[in-house]
Request: fold
Amino acid sequence: MNWQQIKKTNFTSVEALAGYLGIPIPKHPFPLNIPRRLVEKMKKGTTEDPLFKQFVITEAEFLKDPSFKEDPVDDAAFLKAPKLIKKYKGRALLTTTSACAMHCRYCFRQKFDYQKGDFEAELNAIRQDPSIFEIILSGGDPLSLSDQKLSLLLTDLSAISQIKLIRFHTRFPIGIPERINENFLKLLSTIPKQLIFVIHCNHPTELDQDILSALKKISQLGIPVINQSVLLKGVNDSVSVLKELCLTLAANGILPYYLHQLDRIQGAQHFEVDSSIGLKLIDILRSELPGYAVPKFVAEIPHQPSKTPLHALNRLESQNLKPLLQNSSCQLG
Ligand code: SF4
Reply:
């Protein structure tokens, strides 16, 4: 089967997944979508499984907490064109598609107003802003696009001389590593700009040899492969899980880049870990792993000039330099 055929075998029916796992599953407006590879790694008959918690709907999603919002990172305030978000100097993010290989229950773009159509308005906006040197292909998941569409987009972006870097943000290979096939690798090898591949993996059980081998083929093209994780209660809020994840990634040539404090999207309150715990987890990891294998612990605080490193913020807070925390939804201490 090719990757498109494999994607069609995803579990999207609550009834079918409930039957397979032997556990009741409610219906939710953010629909179920889980690749078979991930479902087959879940323990049956229990909700106490790190993959179940990340991908399967639970009653906790229906609880209302007014401090959790539809657009917790204020994406809407930074739109420069219908599919172009520019928050930070030099970098801009293209929401290439709304489609993903899987639906993560904590996704902060669940309610994003995705626009369809070509990228002409976005390409024009990029051309008119010579300060932009990096484009992040995100979504949704850019690897949901066909190679043909990706090729057109990458060619158009490569033709803009100011663009030096093109970054993929993708979780696709974690569910469907078959996406990294010969055609896709050939396409990447023809792009004249430096590519960066940022994957999203939260727990070591998400990884297997097929996934690691597929990602190795990308790094063999001279494309750095790095990982970002989200700190999730009951999933990876322990030293042992984070250590195993970081070590497995590093041992396979993938550097742990960021550990994100949860973005406060409606319905994800049960995933939130107090950031003081995240700070401690990272401090312990520093003593257990080489520095390059320890991710930076960061939060996206809307209207800050970059992702906020929480260790630095914690130091500022302890010195009473509070103004940085204005407009922040991040809880420290
Ligand atoms: S793969 Fe990424 S964009 Fe898609 S649902 Fe998961 S977190 Fe959201």
About this structure: The chain is about 30% helix and 15% strand.
